[in-house]
Amino acid sequence: MPNSKPAVLAVGAHPDDIEFMMAGTLIRLGQSGWKLHYLNVGSGSCGTATEPVRVIVQKRRKEAREACAVIGAEWHGGFCHDLEIVYAPGLIRKILAVVRKTRPRIMLVPSPQDYMEDHSITARLAVTAAFARGMLNFPSVPPLPPADFPVTIYHALPYGLRGPLREPIQPDLFIDIAPAMDLKTRMLSCHKSQKEWLDRSQGLGAYIDTMKDFSREAGRMSGKFGLAEGWRKRSHLGFCGPEDDPLGKAFNA
Length: 253
What we know:
7-stranded mixed beta sheet, alpha/beta, Rossmann fold, single chain
């Protein structure tokens, strides 16, 4: 018997990307009865300065699964190594299989504008996979039958809240994530391998504090929330009805 709960699929380039920019919204949807799916396109292979690929990939997959367990989400992915996230049919087909399997009513995906190409290319891959969900002649890997259902796509704020040319990105929808911050923090804390790596490679200082700073700044941008995540709704063409806004409707936003 099919699951009667509506599903949401969050897509990130690397393990911990969802925790930084999307997890508060994901958590709040889960608290409202939605089925949660969490997809990492990349394996996290480059998130280390000391460990070989095999070791860091196993470690980061374990951390991502632990983060999913915090909120009862189902983990998918690890389709390629970091910096090998390219816009190509092979990756589209793998993401398409997850889309066809999970049948999400909402997809949460990265910003098309981001400081890192892995993030922005992941946005393109996810959008194309969603667009191809009902196409008979574009098979998924593994093969699953086409599935024609409405899906509404929302783009997160970019990491750092600005685009690659330092341009500000203005969301059209904000979600209050104060009720989710404790769980969001617990999820990010599962990614223990990344605190030292990001501190060393990008000078982030306190790993958790950086995430909270982003949430406070998005709250300030909203003009009404102390902690928020910001979203831009993609055009409905090829995905859903012109007035569909299931994320806004879920929170009366």
